[in-house]
Amino acid sequence: xxxxxxxxxxxxxxxxxxxxxxxxxxxxxxxxxxxxxxxxxxxxxxxxxxxxxxxxxxxxxxxxxxxxxxxxxxxxxxxxxxxxxxxxxxxxxxxxxxxxxxxxxxxxxxxxxxxxxxxxxxxxxxxxxxxxxxxxxxxxxxxxxxxxxxxxxxxxxxxxxxxxxxxxxxxxxxxxxxxxxxxxxxxxxxxxxxxxxxxxxxxxxxxxxxxxxxxxxxxxxxxxxxxxxxxxxxxxxxxxxxxxxxxxxxxxxxxxxxxxxxxxxxxxxxxxxxxxxxxxxxxxxxxxxxxxxxxxxxxxxxxxxxxxxxxxxxxxxxxxxxxxxxxxxxxxxxxxxxxxxxxxxxxxxxxxxxxxxxxxxxxxxxxxxxxxxxxxxxxxxxxxxxxxxxxxxxxxxxxxxxxxxxxxxxxxxxxxxxx
Length: 419
What we know:
- The chain has 419 residues and is mainly alpha-helical.
- The protein is 70% helix and 0% strand.
- The protein contains 20 helices and no strands.
- The model is unreliable at 102-108 and 206-212 (pLDDT under 50).
């Protein structure tokens, strides 16, 4: 029978892993200069915590207890390792830390090394998949099987990816440090792109409808908040934070009770999270005050217009078109023009939007949303035969069941309405 102390210990550890894992791990890596050793030692400390806290109750400062225990576990692991001689310097350093650490458990504070850890995980030398996996594991504290489920691979495959990433950091001597001033902008862009990819995997789920996908969006929000607190007053960090807040504000209205997708036009706007919208708009205004607009700020501005519109019809589509023009100046991406065409269809009509979209097919012939968008525009322009062709093309390219069901329903409704 599980006792009350064990339940309390388990709950405390789960909370610490979710809220403090990144901070603890970053501090350990700073001391050990070894990703794998730091993670193993922290895991050892968590196992010890459960045993000790179940028996003796929670310590005054669980975070300090875990860090000090993890250091001792690292010392034990180094002492037992086959290449102990080569680790003497690391071993001595840890012993000195233990000797010098005379602060009491009640007042002990650990330095926040997460910014270094974020930049290391998102180093350009690592491939994008490894950057994402390592960021989720080290900063987010997600378990390997959670990350594997989110990306629809087995646990062993994800574990190997993480091991390879850590090994590359070690062998390539990737510095555990904040980039120099002339590198900082470029590296922040990489970090932001990783966080944005994590968010998109949850919000615009391309492979699954599971709850873990929503969790990814929430993890991205948590990470961008961490980055904003560690590197304040950076316009694009604030821009991405605003963008994610505004998107998440309507996340619960994007599907009906049957899990079917609801278009923005038909979402229940009064159910959007006003608190998140207000925070998103306030954060966007803070970003724009720097007068250094970037892609995330512009996307956030577009989302803010949607969030503030009373209805889909009264949305300021003209302003959205202008913002897409500004975004395209910064990123020559045909997908931006595809999104602009949708705004044009509501600002004027579907016929004008179709003139623009036809010019994009050579660039987006292998992009599923292109055919879904074209089908919708053709339907609205009463070109039913061509709309059917494009719906079928979009459906054939869809791998995610929610989107497939949505498109199939759209096609069925269109055909039924023409009978």
